[in-house]
Batch of 4 targets.
Target 1
Amino acid sequence: MKRAAFGHIGFPILLLIPQLAIIAIFFYWPAGYAIQSSFYLEDPFGFGSTFVGLENYTRLTRSSNYMESAWFTLIFTSVVTFFALAIALLLAVKADKVIRGAKTYRTLLMWVYAIAPPVAGLIGVMLFDQSRGNLTQLFGMMGIEYRLGVNYWDTAIAMITVSIWKQIPVNFIFFLSGLQAIPRSVREAAMIDNPSGTRRFWDITFPLLAPTGFFLLIINITYSLFETFGIVDTIVKGEPGNNPMTLVYRVFVDGFRGQDLGGSSAQSVVLMILVLILTIVQFRFLERRIHYT
Amino acid sequence: MKLKYTVGASLAFGLMAGAAQAQTEIEWWHAMGGQLGETVNQMAENFNASQDEYVITPVFKGTYEETLTSAIAAFRAGEQPNIVQVFDAGAATVIAAQGATIPVETLMADNGYEFDREEFISGVRNFYADSDGMMIGMPFNSSTPVLYYNADALAEAGVEPPQTYEDFEEIAPALLEAGYAGMSASLLQWTMTENFFSRHNLPFATNDNGYGGTDVELLVNHPAIVDHFTSLAEWEEAGYYNWYGAGWGDNQNPFEAGEVAMWIGSSGSFGGIADRVDFNFGATFLPYWESVTSEPTQTFIGGAALFAMSGQSEEENAATAAFFDYLASAENQVFWHVETGYVPITTEAYELAAEQGHYEEFPAAEVGIQQLQLPSGENTRGYRLGFYVQIRDVMIREYSRIIAGETTAEDAFATIEEEANELLARFAQTQG
């Protein structure tokens, strides 16, 4: 193969500048600013600030409330990621088998994808509403007292359910196209070797879907951590109360609602570090086990 | 032909620009949504129509918290509006930032308007003032917590509206018998904490409730309020009191739906309730504990005030002053009071509303303002506490836990005091 090379170092740098500039302005600069202000306590109007060293960080470790949010975020992310992937995979496998009316069926399943998170959150709130919610009434008929916004875990269930529901269509689209990319010949060969559908799925289909699955795993963890903000906000209606909160929502509550810029910056730096660790772990340990064809 | 159009267009544009230059335009950021927002727009239109020197444009910025955050961000970018509406809990943040706003008294004096703080109703006068009593913010939508009752439900149970929490304890079983939960309440931090201390004339914080400076500690862990929340948890267990979570409306809706016989909310909710409910309702003073005091005192105002932001031209400040003057006039106060239910802020406006027979028609509309004029005490003017939005969040989190039985009132108030004092110390540091 012929190697393409640039004659001069300046040209490739010139080509990279637009991209680098965007990253610098929208990521490195604000990130740098967040790191800087995480060491200060600042008057909201910007009149005065005091250097406090690591105080903003040590305060987080002392706060039982912050730790509780961290635990909740861990549980929330695991549950949402697992169920959003599992249900989407199940639906995709079943949809893949449908022959008649396949297009309509798939379109209907993908439809939810077009709903904006706050709208999804709002629909969720309506289903779970204290007095008028259909699900609340259903639980009531079964003798379960379900109270959104009053009971911590009842609120958590609503957040988790709506978040999973919102993410399934995205995962479904990817899994379905992944399934359709598996060569027919491989499937037919497997059919001869083993008549058990379940065995064929775990031995042949699942490993061949792994690259898609790995990609979706990362996307879903990011989704649960960050993009569920709109859903959480709609469910707690901007009033945290004794409701569960994800770490990202907490950054917003302390920084934008509470005007504590230093504390909120420290929290976002912690989040940045967490995402960095997560990315390294995923790519170093998990991706090695994936085979790309 | 084409040239003609261009000339015509630029001529028209030039004229418009000329007209715009002659009038001073100012912007007003507020947090009044829905029906209240329409009334705000109406007031701005009326002001614009009343004279031709100034044009005010109201801009809805979301919730109180969002409005304050937007104004702060705009100030830091040098793009601040002329007027911003700041709610009670955010007052300390704005007032502490000297140089961010022009005190309303200074603004009015500089622009040749007479401004007499004594004309304001006593419960209104002090909240947005500094330690010397100089008014920094211009009180706008002022309200105070009152108790609304479903008169039909109370008649059905054969009971009278309660004056004290002891009365409430007595009538609640009869209401339950008649099929009603006794009571719900919104914004417990306000109705059952800040105003609880004011109603019983108990100190809420050290250093003159925080008016004396940022070196302040909260005194919320008081036996009276610990007992109060212990009772609330017991009442919840017995079905006398219902708790629907931190949302304001979540606690108001069951009252309007006729499930709960009484609701402690804002005097400013009067207009909305009158529009929506189909039962007879009344209002009465915020209850107090007779076991704590035999001489209950007044409450102070909640709601929000308008602050003139600094860094504007003299012409624009003159426009802001003209608008404040317009706003404080008795006619406009009465218009606002009758439309929304928020209390009139001056004695003159109150008298005018009475003269027009508003209270004969709606006795419940007068309760808030009467309560603001009850005897005052050392601890009834309000509070000035930094990072107070976060402190309120700590309170409501712990209150939810008390009512859910996850913690005791003793532990919860110890936690609130500890976390609040840490926040207050942090706020003091931001000022250092």
Note: The interface with chain B takes residues 41-50, 52, 65, 130-131, 147-151, 236-243, 253-254, 256-260, 263 of chain A (CB under 8 Å).
Target 2
Amino acid sequence: MTNKKFLQNTGTFLLFGGPSIFAFFAVVLIPFLFGLYLTLTNWDVRIGDHTFLGFANYAEVFRDKVFLTQLWFTLKYVFFTVVLANVAAFFLAFALTSGFKGQQFLRTGFFTPNLIGGLVLGYLWQLLFSQVLPYLGKEYGWTLFETSWLTDTDKGFWALVIVSAWQFIGYLMIIYIAGFMSVRVDVLEAASIDGANGLTKILKIILPLSAPAIVICIFISISRSFLTYDLNLALTKGGPFNSTELSSYHVVQKAFLSNEYGVGQSEAVVLFAVVAIIALTQAYFLKKLEVEE
Amino acid sequence: MRGFKTSIFLKTISLYILLLAFLFPFLVVILNTFKSTQQFVENPLSWPTRFNFSNYAKAFKDMDFITGFLNSSMITVISVIIIVFFSSMTGYLFVRFKWKANSILFFSMLASMTLPFQALMIPLVVIYGNLGLLNSIATLLFMYLGFGIPFAVFTFHGFIKGVPLELEESASIDGSSRARTFFQIVVPLLKPVMVTLIVLDTLWIWNDYLLPSLLLQSPSMRTLPLSNYGFFSTYSVDYSPLMAGLIMTIIPVLILYLFLQKHIIKGITEGALK
């Protein structure tokens, strides 16, 4: 009897969970564990054979000046992108929840950049930075735009920040709007009656009560900007002279151009650890600021 | 009262102007797809003298738009269907059967959502390369299933928890099997969450570049982002057909967006705030 029950349960498990659990193991779990093993070896496709190294690859990652410079470059990029995108999205969401005709249309409009993948988006902006803005610069004597931003080390950085923030704004705005909607209307009305103006309402009521949305938005924008690859490829290709290579772009280049899988994978694991630590730490501290409604 | 109305009017107008400025990059590019490359370089802001579609025709032919479009559509549609189909069943399994293995599996899926693709990319190429499975659309579909499963199972799990058990119990007393109960009673209730997932996964897979670029080497398997990449590399200075190619890639998702905007916005809200 128990045997029959066991068989029946196994059947249910295989029927309902079989295909998806198999795919999850084959595509995510096993490659992840195998990837950790790879970091401990000197795997190289040309050799085919490999030996166990211990933590030598990680030591190399932390000695590699280029990797560390790019990690620092990436951290600056993430910081400015996250701040710019979230501040803009927050105020946009605030403006688009005040209740007037056409706000739905405006929300839809501001969201559009999110429909487009990083590659196409990068190419669109590449044309803008390399052709349209220099034209404006020459025509009207705006020195800021006279030469293409993408051939300049510092301006290339800001080009990446601006385009990424531009893409994230609409997505984050939607989440902030959802957060504001849950701030109860009667609380805001009561505040208005008590004479609170717009700024006081933002600082004293909306900001604290929408803390969950802020935590999520910052979490999403941190993890997404750390993984920027397509945009980097299409916008600057890491140039000029590798000065705008973000870490996740560098990891891909390293892995598939130099074929040193052990070192490349160690860099990917270090990058993953950095993203996880930063994203979880900010979520932990911001969660503490949440208030009980 | 009149002052109040004027201020709302001013605010609305300034928001529309802001939107126009925000979408300026698109508008400039669309405008220039109707001009020749020379006209574009001379003055990218001039109005086209006439609406000339020859850039579109050129891009359509030279980037082999049809192949890219058919591959992208097929890959997106099949991946989304298998993700939604299998993850809804697994979500149901994890909610209704409180076995120890289920909770361990559910937890590992949850944890795996923090893994960036870059950390899995090299092992995937090594493993599937050794098995001789790279350069195949079937492998790509299987990988989208594996990557899509955790988030989809998580979303269904949250939704199915809220479905009352009584319906299923009475069906089971009437002699319905588990599978039949699931497909005839539970699935119809899952429609809203399915639409959400279909939308989010479609946007992801349609726009994905990195994974197809690692897997699909031969031109006949190219997806649209891969066609774009190839087109951009070969046409580097003939800007007008390039821009037409980019706009053509965007049009299908724009059409989808026009029909499904409510669901897209709702999907993102629910996907994020759960």
Note: The radius of gyration of chain A is 24 Å.
Target 3
Amino acid sequence: MEMKRDYYEDVELFSSGVIIFWFAILIGFLALYPFVFKNYYVYVANYIAINIIVVVGLNLLVGYTGQISLGHAGFFAVGAYGTIFLMSHAHLPFLAALLIAALIAAFLGFLLGLPALRLEGPYLAIATLGFGLTITQVIGKINLLGGRQGLHAPDLIVLGQPIDTDRGFYYLVIPITLLLLLFARNLTKTKVGRAFVAIRDADIAAETIGVNILLYKTMAFAVSAFYAGVAGGLYAFVLRFIEPELFNLFMSIMFLTMTVVGGLGSMMGPIAGAILLSWLDLELRNILSIPYIGQWLQELSKSYFSLTGVSNIQFIIFGLILVFIILFEPLGLYGIWIRTKKYWKTWPF
Amino acid sequence: MKQSIWIIFLVMTIVAATTGNGICEEGVTDTEIHIGQWGPQTGPAAPWGAVARGTDAYFKMINANGGIHGRKLVHHFFDDAYNPAKTKAGVKQLQEQIGMFAWVSGVGTAPGLAVKDYLMERKIPWIGPSTGSRHWVEPPQKYLFNVYPLYLGDAQVLTDYAVNELGKKKIAIAYQNDDYGKQGLEGARFTLEKNGMELVETTPVAVTDTDMKPHIMKLKKSDADAVLLFVTPGAVARLIGTGKAMQFNPQWLSTTTCGDFPLMMSITKGLYEGVISASFGMGKVEGNIGEVQGIIEPKLDLMKKYKEEAYAKFAAEDERWGYTFCAGFGLAEPLVEALRRCGRDLTREKLVKELEGLKNFRGIMGNISYKPFDPEDPLCRLGQQEVYLQECMADGQSKILTDWKETEYIPKNE
């Protein structure tokens, strides 16, 4: 069946023709998506794609290298502010500004990776949390970055093409997302990826067999921050206005939740996590318009959960979904996928 | 058989597409006008969500009284948790899937700015954002009508009162380091300059500052006898509390955002007594200077009506009758008035025209006037420009200190 016989089979990007086939179908679907679905769903897709970028990057850090970060909103903010600033003050084209801003985020990630060499678990969580909170405070003090009054995004022009619709933006975001996904997938299959996993599983053992902990831990932070930086730069153009308050602790926690709920240490998991949670985050607001159930939930919420008579049931349901996924599927959404795959492979037994 | 189903389907689609409300404006049917609004009902900004619930009760009251020219107002409001990405998602969805005729209020500067371009590009009217941000009128937008008075005006009236009525000689300001605080700074400087004076001290307060000792030390050192507070209600409570503990008791003067006296008394544990605050309305009766009144038992007839017919009948049981809730009426009043003036034949362009025709319109807030659109003149979309002053009494009632005071618009200097 799926026995790997040599090294090159292990590192190849697509392990079979079937996967290439499905991948081609996916690309085709993504290419046609904006023409099939309404504009609102194109906006939702853009939002989800941006979250996928952050979460895949975060997963390289949390899932593969076994470090934790509660400060990814900080890198996200650096990407967003960096891109806008470089475009409006240094007059760089969008793609160059995005790349440089993401590299700045990566550099900050590298710096944050240094204390991470000595910190583990809860201590590391607090250190990264501190970073995430500090960066927005610092930005809020810099008048050149708009201080607490925020910044407006300039007009978006990519390769001479003005982009001012959700559909146009979609064709910018999706290729970037796919490119970064392929890069991440590739990375995990190389020496670097194996070093990440070795550090996660047993860092002392990894060091004794010659894995450079200093290099790979800081690299994991830098790469992860780079991803968040790119996503942040794109996010700035989704909103077209940014201010420090946006990049709060809740955002960092949401990124981490998407990663964990999706399934740590896999490629599909975080993608599924980002899709599900971003979608729920935006769409649960409409839960009350579902026929019959919505009415009942509204009454329930108004009678028991809400002081002001407004149904806030969507947040309760959001929480419940998270709890149930983690409770019954500790491997996250990826775990469900593994079981389904196994079931069909061995069907009918 | 299969073919005929397809044909029927095709015919029905064509019929549906060509008849119906093809001639009507988006969001308007024979019996309904769809109005959208966002406002946080959860998260840290949730207290401001009362604005949307106020508007909801207001619209229900109007519908109960027969609607507007035979049409009911259908109010679509959603919770964006003060997250601009969600605001944008919700606005797009309601706009593209149901179709709003216009948008009203909407809490927050960042959420509002995230959707401003979207609404303006589509020429969808948006009336009364619930913050006094300069972003709404600088530059003015044809379809965006500001109602909430700019904080620049608060600062002018407060400063003028401190100098010319109370005879204060040393005015200082504690301001939040953002658009709101900077407007306070500009307004105060503007009025002091007129009187040949200067601010004796300015101390920026960060949203996250919890320890106010350094700020109070600075203010105390300057020997200020009146201090303007352009900060959040929480920071006002901490500043006044710390001031009391450090025996620094100047005349505190605060903005419209801290004009909800019952609430301020409870968060300052009674220290708010004697504080003078600006107010943008909520039922001031003409010429009642020196009278004591409270929002709990309104004296203005219109306010009484809202309390009896909207709040009592349509608000949730635990809803608090306070300034934020009532702002939901005030910010929507110009829209409702313009809808009435439009008559039965309702289009967006007509609504804009009728709004532009509002001159000295007064509901429960101050005078509201607009002018025909001029991209160079922020005043054409500014709306209310007057506030009055009140003093907080021991029981949370307000003593009216001044009549409505017209304020000046100060152009932004970059």
Note: Residues 17-22 of chain B have pLDDT under 50 and may be disordered.
Target 4
Amino acid sequence: MTVLDHRHLAAVPGWLPGATGPRSDPAPLLPDAAPVRVLGTPAVEKTDPELLRELYRRLVVGRRYNQQATTLTKQGRLAVYPASTGQEACQVAAALALREQDWLFPSYRDTLAVVARGVDPLEALTLLRGNAHTGYDPKATRTAPLCTPLATQAPHAVGLAHAARLAGDPVVALAMLGDGGTSEGDFHEALNFAAVLHAPVVFLVQNNGYAISVPLTQQSAAPTLAHKAVGYGIPGRLVDGNDAAAMHAVLTEAVERARSGGGPTLVEALTYRVEAHTNADDATRYREEGEVTAWAGHDPILLMERHLGAAGLLDEKLVRESAEEAEALAARMREEFHTDAVLDPMSLFAHVYAEPTPQLREQADQLAAELAAEAEVHNR
Amino acid sequence: MTTATPVRGARTSSMAQALNAALRDSMQADPTVHVLGEDVGQLGGVFRITDGLTRDFGADRCLDTPLAEAGILGTAVGMAMYGLRPVVEMQFDAFAYPAMEQLFSHVAKMRNRTAGRLPLPITIRIPYGGGIGGVEHHSDSSEAYYTHTPGLHVVTPATVADAYGLLRSSIASDDPVVFLEPKRLYWGKTEWDPAVPTEPIGKAVLRRTGRSAVLITYGPSLPVCLEAAEAAQAEGWDLAVLDLRSLVPFDEQTVCEVVRSLGRAVVVHEAGGFGGAGAEIAARVTEKCFHHLAAPVLRVTGFDIPFPPPMLEHHHLPGVDRILDAVARLQWED
Ligand SMILES: Cc1ncc(C[n+]2csc(CCOP(=O)(O)OP(=O)(O)O)c2C)c(N)n1
């Protein structure tokens, strides 16, 4: 029996009435048989050329951001950087599919989505630089903190979406996670809650092949990760994660479906992690270089360039302006991170509670005294 | 039960290598020892503690699991129920938290719930603590959660030889052991000999004798205390340094002997002080040694804050100066 043949108990003749009554129609739950593609298919004709040019520009700027941040780790200017090189289409589309009032729940690899959402590119790096936990104001941009413990942000997205719906607000939450994250209990609980609450939430799984060293085949035995939606009673979509137009189309559809009361969707984007897991990882221990080279032929920028070129949409102005914007951003990053930021050690006590406890006040005094003593020695 | 049968002689190595040797030798000596966790196979773990185990013992003995801590520990429970000795790796301190339900509700209680019929010989290795510049959720010191949970042993080595000896004993233990690895000590090399057994779990070891006061510590804070003791000589203080090595069982006898003989004690650890392991130690020492104390038992700990970002962590972690400040407050005029 395949998923396609799945029937609800309610459809079984003679099944008893009661709480296990008819639920949803299984038909909309079917995952796409093949990943959705737009670039290089007739569907691209229906896509707004300006959107495609906008996606191109953001891909180019995003790639440069990834490169510059990776370089900064090599110079010791960032504590760590999990690059999304090669995954820029997922990142950019995630941000562009949302409206201003929507919320993004990113994982640690999604800095670029956070930037595409409107967070200042340098503030988005504060955590990874090592200066503070979350550099940006989550409320100002409706972007939750970059989440390090895997899949734990997924239930948050469900709760926020649920609350917004209770308030009557047309707000959608988008939770981003990796293929490895789909093994965590929190992922499954989030899908189930979202389904039962019919919450306006979209889950985007960037399947980039590996969870650190573990390939997807050792992570999940499901035919696709999109299939995981079926057991929870929500639609699952499979999409080419390197096709920015397809990513944008599928995510926009899922987001607007959620907004109009259609409930949650799980989107699996097939993509590839070009760099090692982080700068601290040695990818040669678990994968062949040939694999990386093979994916280079399916690079998101390459795919977009190919289409724009063929369609006569890639004019010199767009190329030049995108490259200039990318270089300007990279220069800003180099400039800002060239020197160590001046941090206030007393900030350690600033936001533990709304009102510091008496014990914390005492500890703050202790640190202040230590710093004063140090300064005195220094000035002598 | 696994017996410590070291296979190679004296060497100079890092703590990471000693832990690898302990896993290797335990697996060699006892076919029921199985290692499982995230990235422990092909990659050898993100800290390379399980390096080469899959190659040498096969993927069944050293298993790359799906990414799910509750699943990993829960599976280990079942494996132990069927006669295996699982050694679980949690990738970083705070990433063990999804497994707490399994740890608190099952691992810690199975022996008790089954009147001794289902003991669980599971070792849970957790790299812990700060000092390596890790971002959020990579530097927690969570020992107090574990020590507060009856049924768990809580062990933490501070030397290369102990990393080997204590891990072998933990794996051989018929009870679950939370094995806390001070990750900032992973890479420092010293000479040690696996053939020379270290003291058993539950025995504290005096790492430095002294006549003025004792610093009571464990894990990542041991080298800091030894450094402080050196520096204290300039002030005329001769400090002893006691390494607890295991928090549960707690070596009350040795601790009290030392405190009674010196009359002054400072407990040092990097986790926050409130409700921390140091609070227990200070209270216990006060109860048992009150009439021998010349000063209150002081604590030097991290602040009671979420672990700070890397660029500020040195303000949080107790260093030599903070320890010496405490020693200075030990009412020397008495
Ligand atoms: C609960 C938890 N366990 C372990 C980790 C350590 N860890 C960080 S990233 C990672 C791999 C994640 O892989 P995946 O979800 O596929 O995302 P990707 O890094 O490929 O984007 C692991 C195991 C973590 N961050 N959180």
Note: Residues 49-74 of chain A form the longest helix (26 residues).
